[in-house]
Design brief:
mainly alpha; two-stranded antiparallel sheet; 12 helices
């Protein structure tokens, strides 16, 4: 295995393997990550990888640990309201998932990966919810709701490429064609906001949805 910078052999290590694994996942998805593919990218015998990581599951766990260790929550540590701490934790989580959306799909479906990500990066969100006064079981439920919201939002955002989702013109045309009185509330809302009111922009949509979620937690406290 050669170092691209100077042509000298580069020593195989856990870090080098994980760097290559993350490149594969980012470029081609989880399915493309195999020990054979890793070995080919690293130009080594596949068996040499097993000296550092015993299999694909260990590689994935290492990738999750590496990515989530980068999570940084931009909140002042003292005197910050819990609502702002939850918001900052969710925003930081979204940034991590947007940087590595293919790995995010693994997080959603793999309990071991979820546990790893939570152990590495869950403290800011859990601390904020505990500060709000939630009992332990409610902390877990609220944290799961926030994380599931971010996961679901990311899936839609990734599928659309992050471009605005312009629902308005088609929706207004279909609402206008409905039998009179069949959807009075939808019709009234559509008339009030117009086509632009149904244009979904992901950055704004994330913040609006997150505010609604946080207000729901506040209501539960009351």
């Amino acid at each position: 295995m050669a170092d691209a910078g100077n042509g000298r052999p580069r020593r195989l290590s856990r870090e080098v393997i994980l760097d290559a694994g993350l490149r594969i996942v980012d470029e081609a998805g989880i399915e493309a990550l195999t020990m054979r593919r890793l070995a080919a990218d690293l130009q080594v015998n596949p068996m040499s990888i097993y000296h550092h990581l015993p299999g694909k599951a260990a590689v994935l766990a290492g990738l999750v640990e590496r990515v989530y260790a980068q999570l940084r929550v931009d909140v002042p540590p003292d005197g910050t309201p819990w609502q702002d701490q939850v918001r900052a934790a969710a925003q930081a989580y979204r940034r991590i998932l947007r940087a590595h959306p293919n790995l995010a799909l693994q997080i959603i479906s793999d309990p071991a990966a979820v546990a790893e990500s939570l152990a590495v990066a869950g403290e800011p969100l859990y601390a904020a919810l505990a500060q709000a006064g939630l009992p332990p079981r409610a902390v877990v439920d609220a944290a799961n709701t926030v994380v599931d919201f971010v996961h679901g939002f990311l899936l839609g955002e990734t599928r659309s490429g992050g471009e605005p989702f312009d629902l308005g013109p088609d929706l207004l045309e279909r609402v206008a064609a409905l039998p009179q009185g069949s959807a009075p509330t939808l019709t009234a809302v559509a008339e009030a906001v117009g086509a632009d009111g149904f244009r979904f922009e992901y950055d704004r949509g994330f913040e609006v949805s997150l505010d609604i979620l946080i207000r729901g937690i506040e209501a539960g406290l009351r």
